[in-house]
């Protein structure tokens, strides 16, 4: 098996020394220097690398120590050579290695390994004869008198007896000891026990990480209890370890989940603490415990490790999906506190501003509580900008202030005013001022520069044109009070879409001038709230696609059929914002989470969090060359904040280790093969509730679309093609998962476009009543009737019920129960074979059931395995049905069934192959004259085997480093292994 | 432990809330009982790593509450051991202690009827270490916990007793089976329906406890203690061979580079005696007899530990 192409799994090591970076994703190690990436060959090992130590001898040479679980290996490197990294030693220990360090001041090449039960192995590497492999000698095994299970250890020191060992255990304690003055002193022994010097209750839960800096006299610990703690470390080097050594400074709360790592960073002459959490946030803290900066960094995945380059101020973070991301903290670290937030004073009068808007990138317009209008020009001079009065504004109480392209519109009771601003002269001109509607005007929308839409509290709505505000048409959108327009978008010159405050989306057309017609209403797109953002994404001859966002965390895409004006909801997307308010570009959304203003990017995740108070305040933004300016009013004062949105450090890293794979375990992948030789699509789903569609493109993996219809984990999905005479037009995706949810979505490879059809809760019983509880759905299978096109859906739920449901493409929201059976045990895998009138189901107690497709008759039942059958594949070779099953009983069974009478011809058991439960199988028929069935198998033991089912020979072809493997696929001579991550391994062409 | 979300609230979660169980895991023990009848006729039970106490609740309801008379009730002893205290449960005696300590084992036995030398009929352990999210590490920690739970069970179980413990299905189930069969007649791995199919947890159910002849119960901390030293602690030659095996599946005993520093305290007579004991013991598991037979005969013949080349440094 050859080099990896794709590996998305835990990245547990990152290490900076001088100009280079050593990092690991799963079992793969990479050395990065000056924009080039070198893969350190680590052929033999499949265990994930948990840490590394670099010992640089010169600019280009040195030693690297890697440790993985209980194994370690030593590499020699010389960057001038062709083969840069050479393995020179490997060994294993009895216990889990959780830290390692070189001891510089000791003679020869000495290092120590620290293990999870407070034991320390002091080793010396020698290579007397300059052979390829040298020898490691154990100089001492040192153990501490305490032996609680440690989750993390930090080592410091350059000589062995002065090593400082600080560990954290699951009781929230910090333990400190040193390998000097043993309690059982014995000169001849190489095994000594040393006293625990200090035990300190630090946290209310596991201590996940420890870092300390003696010159800064600082110790930082992070924990399960969602906090990090800073401690003052009295560092006279002849330490006396008692409670006076460590004094608590402060506790820092800012993460919303467990804090997994923290490092002490020095930049200039200041010390910072940077922490990373399970919530995917990094936080930067000052030495006194104030949070300086917070940002979501790993798309929602846990952050495992951090490293800080004190020269460039780049922060590296590694996460559980194999992303290694960089962020330049320079601007944050050099600036004084709150530098970025400026207050824009009104002067000393008791007048204050209640509404502010950007007029253009350098001018702000505002309305005060005394109904005066002001503006402020932001010039790049040392002079503080001031608010100047717009004297021509006829002061009246305004409900609306809106701006477009240097035109200011204000509305109040019945009245509308339009002003224009001349950028060069800085003068305002009144374009219009007059009475337009009968009630309080609540909205003013610019459809174009010349076309406006206003509405009042009674739902009266006018389309106005030009500076004279000629009435182009009128319409009443509701009879209820307080229903006005919240958003509007012009789709074509004769039609526009508006959203009302009651949640209705309305399509309005203008057939003849001055006559507006309400064509279609789409109710409750965002429940009972109106859209705040309507954006035209794409328009062609037939369809227009419009994106809608509201004060909720879901974006929706609606499709408008331009011929019959039908409005359909196409797709939704969940974003980590509680409330969306603006969408400056297609990539960026701005909204609120609690009392934070948040800017979120599809590509980068959360890019700005600004504590400004809640969402019901007046604010505005200006996005210019990736610089986002925010103005907002808080406690009657105006503030300004400027942020560089994409502050990534450029370089090879930003491309090489960046993926948007599932952030939780992936449960299923299905392939969309394309006829026209183009690259296949993968449809995957997992515990992160998301269905992802990606395309394989040579060696890269491109995400194409996401479906956010599931409210809980997705367990299984199947694809069904909808064909025309000649070709597949699109695919239906049937997916099931937690909370008894079945979703049916549509995927068109040309585009590609993913759209939602329906979502159902499957819990209906044979008596027509609903089951009391929503059992998780474990598997789904689909057959389509050749006569009338009705779909037959087999849905297996965790309570043992197997339902046969009827569904029609024409009536997606209707689901009819055809039949239900109860097999009493939780089903795991299911396969419907149309040609053989057979539905196969495996269960958690090892039984394989065969039912007729109607579910009315059981054709057979075999106890195939002693326990759960979690892996299951079938293949029909033209004569017989081959069933390969893998169970929790660590055996694989190959069963051959005669399809006519369901007699079992043969059942071969392989029990010697794997030594853990088998969770992934793949069957394929070899091409050529003699058809042989091969299988690839993978198990929790991480071994990958190839089986020849004819000769019954098998051989191990490799390992995966993924844990909790859920499946294996064979696509284009590559094995795709998924579970806690994704690994693609190229098969040798033999 | 970890995150909770509404999403995780399934059938058993709600049922647990309705029926007043402290955690949904109560159903796991009930399902194990339905399958294996482990609670039948049990009067003395120990719940290791008991907090928050849902398994103790099950024991209380099934063993204590069903008793009709006070006399019967007084016969029932349920002992819940944990490092942290938990809210009291009817009929359950709480013991705050560390299961990696021998003193805890003695404290448990002290609660049973000393005059008739009674021990526990059932030891259950639903404990799991605090998970880190790195599956390999979590499995490792769980294996450590299992050995601790097993070693305390060897102290407190009576012959024929039952042992139930949580495992994370991983790499070494075969090994675990052999380890458990050293002490029990029957071994099963069972995943109750109430355990989420997506979770890697399962339970070992070991029935028919029997101490191998000559084995003296002792606390084993596999990763930490020097197994060789530990193996010799009780002075029993059986322990010397079995302890390394229980701790880390090592049938070679503890031959490692550091071993040269120990003086061998056992004479060939010790080994001969042990060998004879083992051969005579009909209850001794056959597969270990084979293994140990070779080893013991070797020891008797050679009487010295080979300092062979190995990559295992400690």
From TrEMBL, chain A:
InterPro entries: tRNA_Anticodon_Mtase-Reg, WD40/YVTN_repeat-like_dom_sf, WD40_repeat_dom_sf, WD40_rpt. One of its GO terms (biological process) is tRNA methylation. It comes from the Eukaryota. One of its GO terms (cellular component) is cytoplasm. Signal peptide: none annotated. Belongs to the WD repeat WDR6 family. This is tRNA (34-2'-O)-methyltransferase regulator WDR6. The lineage of its organism: Eukaryota, Metazoa, Ecdysozoa, Arthropoda, Hexapoda. The gene is LOC111598472.
UniProtKB/TrEMBL annotation, chain B:
Keywords: Cytoplasm, Methyltransferase, S-adenosyl-L-methionine, Transferase, tRNA processing. GO terms for biological process: cytoplasmic translation; neurogenesis; tRNA nucleoside ribose methylation. Its EC number is 2.1.1.205. The keyword Disulfide bond does not apply. One of its GO terms (molecular function) is tRNA (guanosine(34)-2'-O)-methyltransferase activity. It comes from the Eukaryota. Its main location: cytoplasm. It catalyses: cytidine(32)/guanosine(34) in tRNA + 2 S-adenosyl-L-methionine = 2'-O-methylcytidine(32)/2'-O-methylguanosine(34) in tRNA + 2 S-adenosyl-L-homocysteine + 2 H(+). Gene3D superfamilies: Vaccinia Virus protein VP39 (3.40.50.150). The keyword Cytoplasm applies. S-adenosyl-L-methionine binds at residues 53, 55, 82, 98, 126. InterPro entries: RNA_methyltr_E_TRM7, RNA_methyltr_RlmE, RNA_MeTrfase_FtsJ_dom, rRNA-MeTfrase_E, SAM-dependent_MTases_sf. The active site is at 166 (proton acceptor). Belongs to the class I-like SAM-binding methyltransferase superfamily. RNA methyltransferase RlmE family. TRM7 subfamily. HAMAP family: RNA_methyltr_E (MF_01547), RNA_methyltr_E_TRM7 (MF_03162). This is Putative tRNA (cytidine(32)/guanosine(34)-2'-O)-methyltransferase. It comes from Drosophila hydei.
